[in-house]
Amino acid sequence: MQVDDLSFDQRHIWHPYTSMTKPLPTYWVTSADRCELILKDGRRLVDGMSSWWAAVHGYNHPVINQAMNEQIARMPHVMFGGITHSPAVALCRRLISLTPEGLDCVFLADSGSVAVEVAIKMALQYWQGRKEPRYEFLALRKGYHGDTFGAMSICDPYSSMHRLYRGYLAPHKFIEPPKCRFDDVWNEEDGVPLIALLEAYHYKLAAIVLEPIVQGTGGMRFYHPEYLRLARDLSNKYGILLIADEIATGFGRTGEWFGCNHAGISPDILCVGKALTGGVLTLSATLTCRHVADTISNSDAGCFMHGPTFMANPLACAAANASISLLEDEQWKSCVAAIANQLKSGLLPLINHPRVIDVRVLGAIGVVETTHPVNMATLQRWFVDHGVWIRPFGRLIYLMPPYIISSSELTKLIEAIVECLDLPSHFLL
Ligand code: PMP
Q1: Is the distance from the beta carbon of residue 248 to the nearest atom of ligand 1 less than 6 Å?
Q2: Is residue 229, in this structure, part of any structural domain at all?
Q3: Average of pLDDT values for 4-16?
Q4: Which residue is catalytic, options 47, 59, 142, 274?
Q5: Cβ–Cβ contacts within 10 Å for residue 68, how many?
Q6: Are residues 251 and 277 in the same domain?
Q7: Rounded distance between C-alpha atoms, residue 367 and residue 364, angstroms
Q8: 3-state secondary structure of 378
Q9: I need a labelling partner for 421 at 20 to 30 A (CA). Which of 167, 242, 253, 358 fits?
């Protein structure tokens, strides 16, 4: 590596949500193994992020690596137009059997945001097929669905960065999300905005779209399963579609295979991504039920109008098959439960800390909400100096470790959070 590679990176390469003139620091990672990221200077960091919800088995997993190596030797990629292959067929069989009942038709795409675009397009084409075109969606405030334009248009219109593009984005309807927490007693009041909006406006809506149980990037909030059941009942009543964005919640993160399983509901359209490949390659899927697929296919268009170049990339499908095969014995359920217990005993007492507003834990997700925003750059450096990889944002310091994390590694992550709350004020503004 050239001496000034880091400065090249800072000068020429955009990182997620960063400035070219005032770039945030970056850390040079040379390899990653199990739950550790290894820096160029030899330091090893315990990973509390799972590379943004994705690396559920940790890094460098031999089963996933072997599946990928075998697939590389056979065929890393081939177009999907007019061609099929066993990695895709095996994966779609698995997805249909794992996801909630009735989701029988699968579209494989390249990222979470694209899966959401595909879901939006499916809903639009469904209503075209019914000869009753509808263009508006109902989404939740504090929701997050991705960075492409269709996905941005259904993100929180005020608090998200997507307000920057407001004039360009399709206008949709937004309601307050439920306040009732995951394990509170359900409060009927929480359903009122949804009931009221649908009563007044259902005839214009193509679909309700939400992140089941966990609103992720928009605030890391965990809400009550009854709200999902209500959304399902009302979408049935009014004959509109229910789209579940399970890109962050899918594959066990909340303690169930999918967020929808907490409520025992099946959406009409479901998006998965992130942990689909165990976090090694980008791949997503949008599943829908036969009725929606038939309505689209029997419409004047005659087909569903989307087809990415790297659709069903065999290498990514092979990784996904290996990752799902590792989850199939459901041992992850006890790992996630153990993580949840440890997060609860380590983090919940922080509720009494003067700098903390709230602490919440669900499955392998632990969130400490602070009274003031964190200084991401300085706090992250402090975390790195303390041997952990934690990337806070806004007023949220959170953990979502790989399911295979050991209890001593998790202790290290928790202790770093406990300690950081007593740092001088330039860390926590
Ligand atoms: N939906 C949700 C719920 C997400 O959390 C994300 C990513 N954070 C996306 C969609 C977009 O996925 P991607 O970053 O793979 O485009």
Answers
A1: yes
A2: yes
A3: 93
A4: 274
A5: 19
A6: yes
A7: 10
A8: helix
A9: 253
Structure tokens at 129: 């097929």
Find out whether the beta carbon of 144 lies less than 6 Å from any atom of ligand 1.
yes
Please give the distance, rounded to the nearest whole angstrom, from the Cα atom of residue 423 to the centre of ligand 1. Answer: 32
Pocket test for ligand 1, best of 114, 145, 209 (most atoms within 8 A of CB): 145
Ligand 1 lined by 51 (C-beta under 6 Å): no
Q: Comparing C-alpha atoms, which of 56, 36, 46 is closest to residue 253?
A: 56
Are 233 and 317 found together in one domain?
A: yes
Would you say the CB of residue 87 lies under 6 angstroms from ligand 1? no
Q: Is 18 within a domain?
A: yes
Q: What number of CA atoms fall less than 13 Å from residue 392's CA on the CB side?
A: 32
Assigned domain for 68 exists:
no
- Ligand 1 centroid–CA 131 distance in Å is 31
Range of the structural domain that residue 336 is part of: 5-60+331-426
Number of domains in the chain: 2
Query: Can you tell me which atom of ligand 1 is nearest the CA of 111?
Result: 15
Annotation marks residue 142 as catalytic: no
- Six token digits for residue 402: 């790989």
Domain boundary among 329, 361, 379: 329
Which residue is it, tokens 């306040």? 179
In a domain, 66, yes or no: no
Residue 113 identity? S
pLDDT of residue 2: 59
